[in-house]
Structures are given as structure tokens and as C-alpha cells.
């Protein structure tokens, strides 16, 4: 584990506010256990819990908070300069941070999704959701790490994507789902474990290709932006 | 030892002898500044991007609804339904505005400067809250006014205009309910952290994670749980109060079934009042603690 990754992980876990991330996954498991325990049919509680809460809220919001936290927080308080002045190539700064962000997000989201999928249908669905969510975590993290280098307000930009693009437009315009990470994850999970619980209009090969493209493309963009990074004081 | 030769020169410092404005003026200034901050007025172009993006989208929807109504004659949504349809944008707007109002002051540690004025502890958060409520109400109310103008100019005679106005007023009241509940919850969360980024994330997380709880509660095999499900999430809570108070304005579709409240309509109203009261109380408690530092 490189030093940058170590520092980043400590920066994430060393703060009390990391605990704020826990209620979301816990809520996911609690709702799944509650529904299962009270004997509601999985076809009724599966879509709102697995997709409505798990893939549409927990995954993007955790990825947003962690993804903008690994680099955006350092840029915000100016300590990124200490890392930038070391003789490290910029990709050795971006990639470990991205790996930590994706790893933390995947661990936080995949475990409760596995439990919820297991309760809803089978071990296979649980594993499929966990794998798909991990792939999604990588794509989301790349997107949000790049966003924190493109703008000074990365969280708001990320929220525009999560709320307005994925939340509003994907429901109204089915065509915009082709550019929605949430639907790639659903397509991936549905392919790995075909059930009646997950529905999307995006095809599986397209989803796999787009997840890879988004992850690699935004990582390269982040590295490129960090090469031309200009240190400036806080504006407005 | 020589005698001291120093002289004190009068360089013209004067005491302020003019009128000193009191608490009300401080409150008013804070409120006005808050409303301007919500929309990024008086700040750089960067601070205006996100608030005006939301205002632009909401305005576009209102314009489209108005155009469809005047051209085709089909009422896409009533004034009251407009607020419901915009709920995600309202959440985003709160996530943009609330951290701007309170988190920046916490971060830069200027609160002691505010409280060195004739300003009671409670006035600062209340002025900010009032500013956010006003901002949200304007966000939801102004497009309804656009829709009203479109409807009024196509209505036949004064009678039609009067009917439109009677539809608009409950819509504006309903928008006010949205504004009060979302502003009090959002401002409370934002006041917990000095980092705008975390405040925005926290607000969105709280609002979004409560929605699926409603989804699960409403399919549990217990009718009471189903009918009380809406209480668990701010948007459905507001909707429940609206359905209880003015059902015919929210559900216009004849065979459209809204959420079934059963006999619990007044419970929704009580919970809404209790939620706002609790949020304001916690906000005041929070500022008693912060101001003491």
C-alpha cells in the first residue's frame, strides 16, 4: 500500500464524520430484515429497497461523499500542496486515492446489498448485487474524483448528476439511461442473477463497456487535470 | 533625567453620536442578506450557478405547463401539484442554499462578531431560517404566479380569473408548507458542520434515505402502518397534510388513487408541526452552544 493511499485512508477513517456514512447501509439492512420478517412478498419490497434505496441512493451518495472527500477535502483546505510538491508522478497520486475511494465505497455498499439480496431472493442475487455495486463504486468514484478536480464545488456538481440527471431525467427520458451509471449497475446485476426484481432498458454489453469507459476515462481526466492544477485561494 | 517631551496630538478621532439601530434592524439586515445569499445575489457568478440552475429548470417547467394549457387547453398540473412535482429540485435547492447560509459563518468563525451586536442568540438562526423559508417559497411560488397569469389571460371573463385565483391561493399556502418543513430540516443539518460539502451531502442523504422507508412501510401487511407510512419522510409528510386539507386540488384524476391516509389526516398535520418545532428547538440549542465558544 503506497503512502498516498495510507494517508488518504487515514484521512477518511480518522474523522468522526465518517461515522455519518453508516446509517445509510444500516437502514438498507434493517428495511430488508423488517420486510422479510413481516412476510411481505419479495416482489413487493425488492424494487423499493434494492433499487430505490440501495442502488439509487446509498451507492451514489456514499460514493459522492467518499469520492469528493479523498481529494476534494485536501484541495478545499489547501493541504493538497504537500502531496503535490513531492516528486511523485501525478498518476501515483490520483490512482491510489481513487483505489481507496472505490474500495471504501464498495465495502460500505456491497455488504448490505449482499445481505438485502440474500433476503430478497438468493445468494446468487446477493453476490450479483455486490459485484455490480462494486463495479458501480469504481465508476462513480472515478467520476467524483474527476469532478473534485474540475470544480471547486464538486459535491454540488455530483448532486446535479445524482439528483437531476439520474433521479429526474432517467425516469422521464428513457434514452438518457444510456448515460446513467445507476442503470449500468442494474443491468449488470440483472445479467449476473436474472430475477423479476430488477428492470432496466440498458443492455448488458453496453453497460459493461460504458462502466469500463467511464472508470478509465474519468481517471485519465483526473490525472490530466491534476497535471495542470493551479493552487488558488478560496474564491467567493 | 530630562522632562518627558511627548505631546498627545488631536488627530480628529470622534465618538459616534448618531442614531444607533436596534435589534429589529439587525434582524432585518440579517434576513435580507440571507435571502440574497440563497440566490447568490451580491456574490460572484460562480455562487449563482447552482441556485439559478434550479430556478431556471423550475421556471422552464412552469412555462411549459402554461404553454400547454393555453395552446391545447389541457391542465397538466394544478398549482398545488406543481410543488409535489418539483420535490427533487427542492431538495437540491436546500442542499445548495442551507450550507451557504450557515456553514460559511461557522467555518470562518465570524459568529462572535455577529453576537457582539445587539443581537440575541436566537435571532441569528431565526433570521437565517426565515430567509431560507422565503427563498424556497419564492422558488415554488413564483412559477405558480407565471402559471396563474397564463391561466388568467386565457380565462373567459372576470369569473374565470376569480376561479383561477381561488385555485392559486391554496397552491401558494401549500408551497409555504413545503418551504417551512424543508427549510427547518435542511438548516438544522447544515448548522451541524462548517464544511459546505458535507452539509450538502448530509441534507441530500437525509431527505433521500427517508423516501424508501415510506415505500416499505406502505406495503407492510398492516393497514395502520400503510396509512401512517407517509409520516416517515418529509415530502410525503407534506403531501399527507395537503391531502388531508385539500384533497380535490391534489388529486384531479378521477380514477387516480393517491396515498390512503385513512383517519390519520390530523396526525399528519400534528407530526408536521412537531417536526418543525423540534427542528427549530434543536437549531436554537445548537446556536446556544456554538455562540458560547
UniProtKB/TrEMBL annotation, chain A:
* A Pfam family of this chain: ABC2_membrane_4
Transmembrane ranges, per UniProt, are 49-73, 94-119, 125-147, 154-174, 202-223
Supply the alphabetized keyword list: Membrane, Transmembrane, Transmembrane helix
Top-rank lineage group of the source organism? Bacteria
Protein name, as recorded:
ABC transporter permease
What are the top taxonomic ranks of the organism? Answer: Bacteria, Bacillati, Actinomycetota, Actinomycetes, Micromonosporales
UniProtKB/TrEMBL annotation, chain B:
Q: Which UniProt keywords apply?
A: Membrane, Transmembrane, Transmembrane helix
Which top-level group of life is the source organism from? Bacteria
Keyword Transcription belongs to the record? no
Which positions, given as ranges, span the membrane? 49-72, 78-98, 129-152, 172-190, 197-220, 267-285
Spell out the protein name for this chain: Membrane protein
The protein's organism comes out as Micromonospora qiuiae
Amino acid at each position: 500500500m503506497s503512502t498516498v493511499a495510507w494517508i488518504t485512508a487515514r484521512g477518511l477513517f480518522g474523522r468522526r464524520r465518517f461515522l455519518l456514512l453508516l446509517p445509510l447501509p444500516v437502514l438498507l439492512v434493517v428495511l430488508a430484515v423488517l420486510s422479510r420478517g413481516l412476510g411481505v412478498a419479495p416482489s413487493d419490497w425488492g424494487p423499493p429497497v434494492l433499487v430505490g434505496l440501495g442502488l439509487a441512493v446509498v451507492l451514489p451518495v456514499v460514493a459522492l461523499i467518499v469520492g469528493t472527500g479523498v481529494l476534494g477535502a485536501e484541495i478545499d483546505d489547501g493541504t493538497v500542496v504537500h502531496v503535490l510538491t513531492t516528486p511523485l508522478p501525478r498518476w501515483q497520486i490520483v490512482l491510489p486515492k481513487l483505489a481507496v475511494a472505490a474500495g471504501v465505497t464498495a465495502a460500505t455498499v456491497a455488504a448490505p446489498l449482499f445481505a438485502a439480496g440474500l433476503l430478497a431472493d438468493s445468494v446468487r442475487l446477493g453476490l450479483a448485487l455486490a459485484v455490480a455495486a462494486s463495479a458501480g463504486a469504481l465508476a462513480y468514484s472515478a467520476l467524483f474524483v474527476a469532478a473534485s478536480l474540475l470544480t471547486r464545488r464538486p459535491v454540488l456538481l455530483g448532486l446535479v448528476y445524482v439528483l437531476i440527471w439520474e433521479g429526474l431525467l432517467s425516469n422521464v427520458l428513457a434514452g438518457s439511461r444510456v448515460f446513467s451509471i445507476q442503470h449500468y449497475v442494474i443491468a449488470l446485476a440483472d445479467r449476473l442473477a436474472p430475477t423479476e426484481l430488477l428492470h432496466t432498458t440498458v443492455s448488458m454489453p453496453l453497460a459493461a463497456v460504458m462502466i469500463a469507459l467511464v472508470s478509465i476515462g474519468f481517471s485519465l481526466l483526473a490525472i490530466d487535470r491534476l497535471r495542470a492544477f493551479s493552487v488558488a485561494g478560496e474564491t467567493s | 533625567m530630562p522632562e518627558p517631551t511627548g505631546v498627545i496630538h488631536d488627530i480628529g478621532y470622534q465618538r459616534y453620536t448618531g442614531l444607533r439601530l436596534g435589534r429589529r434592524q439587525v434582524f432585518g439586515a440579517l434576513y435580507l442578506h440571507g435571502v440574497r445569499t440563497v440566490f447568490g445575489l451580491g456574490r460572484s457568478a460562480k455562487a449563482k450557478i447552482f441556485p439559478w440552475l434550479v430556478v431556471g429548470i423550475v421556471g422552464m417547467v412552469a412555462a411549459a405547463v402554461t404553454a400547454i394549457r393555453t395552446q391545447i387547453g389541457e391542465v397538466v398540473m394544478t398549482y398545488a401539484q406543481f410543488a409535489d412535482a418539483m420535490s427533487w429540485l427542492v431538495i437540491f435547492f436546500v442542499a445548495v442554499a442551507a450550507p451557504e447560509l450557515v456553514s460559511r459563518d461557522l467555518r470562518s468563525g465570524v459568529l462572535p462578531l455577529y453576537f457582539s451586536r445587539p443581537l440575541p442568540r436566537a435571532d441569528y438562526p431565526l433570521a437565517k431560517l426565515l430567509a431560507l423559508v422565503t427563498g424556497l417559497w419564492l422558488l415554488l411560488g413564483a412559477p405558480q404566479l407565471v402559471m396563474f397569469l397564463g391561466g388568467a389571460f386565457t380565462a373567459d371573463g372576470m369569473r374565470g380569473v376569480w376561479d383561477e385565483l381561488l385555485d392559486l391561493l391554496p397552491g401558494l399556502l401549500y408551497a409555504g408548507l413545503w418551504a417551512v418543513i424543508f427549510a427547518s430540516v435542511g438548516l438544522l443539518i447544515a448548522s451541524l458542520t462548517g464544511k459546505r460539502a458535507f452539509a450538502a451531502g448530509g441534507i441530500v442523504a437525509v431527505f433521500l434515505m427517508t423516501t424508501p422507508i415510506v415505500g416499505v412501510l406502505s406495503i407492510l401487511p398492516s393497514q395502520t402502518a400503510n396509512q401512517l407510512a407517509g409520516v416517515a419522510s418529509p415530502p410525503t409528510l407534506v403531501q399527507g397534510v395537503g391531502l388531508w386539507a385539500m384533497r380535490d386540488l391534489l388529486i384531479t384524476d378521477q380514477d387516480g388513487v393517491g396515498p390512503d391516509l385513512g383517519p390519520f389526516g390530523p396526525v399528519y398535520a400534528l407530526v408536521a408541526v412537531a417536526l418543525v418545532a423540534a427542528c427549530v428547538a434543536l437549531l436554537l440549542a445548537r446556536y446556544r452552544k456554538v455562540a458560547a465558544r
